[in-house]
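Are you able to produce any protein sequence you like plus the matching backbone structure tokens because I've never seen that pairing?
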Amino acid sequence: MYAKMKQRDIIFLLFDTARADSFGCLGASRDTTPVLDSLASDGLVYERAYSNSIWSLPAYASVFTGELPSEHGAVDWEQRLNGNPLVEYLGENGYRTGCVSPHLLSGDFGLSDAFDVHHVVNNFDERLPYPDESVTQTVKSRTQSGKYDSLLEKATDFTSLAMRQRSYRAFMNGVAYFRTKIRNRRGEWTDDGADEVLTRSREFLDSGVGPRFLFANFIEPHAPYRPPAEYVHTYLDEDVGVDRLEKALSKSFVGATAGNVTIGERDREILRALYDAEVRYLDDRIGEFLQNVEAQSEGPDPVIVVASDHGDLFGERGIWGHQSEIDRDLAHVPLIVSHPDLPAGRVESPVSLRQLYTFFTSLPKGTSVASIRATPSSPSTSAGIHSCQSSRGTSTRT
């Protein structure tokens, strides 16, 4: 019989839109993830991990239910899940559960309801206090139709409509929106919430008693790619000015994918450099967070899982962003699992993110550790779970 071990804290860090090759351990051409590469060197790196969707909601839902999108049904913005089976299971088995998110788990999709603690981060780019307000929606529609030739023209129309309707909410939206736009034009970029996500995550881990399950959710490196000002030129020459950066950022991915907008090679280079800089920024912040976790921890080392919900493309096969069609490279994501009782190594067999459900639900049992192991037929098929009792450095994976 196996001796029952003390349950470990679980830390699940989920990037948004990080493609597999944005991580050094998975082939990045730049030194984007030194912290996570170090974590990967002592853990399991899944070379062929695939999300179950190319956009966030169905991908998240598959992780928390263990189901394919065709089974859980959360395949458009009008859908709501009835419960969160993963978090409910962990809660029933002694885990205190916490979520910190600026993204889907701050919305009304049913994913956040089961957490004991849920903190919404509201400071990512272009977040409006009243997003459904009528003037705001009118100007948004006119923008998408190409009505405005300049920011000034857009501001004038917005102000005129808001005054006619005497809408306080419109004015509040306008102040927030144009303040962000002016700040962006000056290159005064700040992060999209990562710093607060990690601060609140630390507070959750410091509160209450263990074991704890933390889901820390980031919007980075989702477009628009505006890393904090001090990271802008990490992979760009210093003489590339803000106006040139904004010109590249203004290009519509939807239009480019549809063939109505041209994104040239220099624009592509700038966009990818900014994207990689956002990944590097997040890696640095996570490094500080993990150092603090290690310094403050009094219990056994935690289980740490790092993944992304899907990727982004930069013109490959004519696709920009994650629009238009299902593509294998859009679904190919990083997946790193660090568990002190699992051997370090690299896994070549394909796995899907919905298998994290089985992995996470195996942890409260405390008697064995289950690594993720896929059937070789398809990255989206259901997978078996490989039990592993060996210590680090001795692999029993096949």
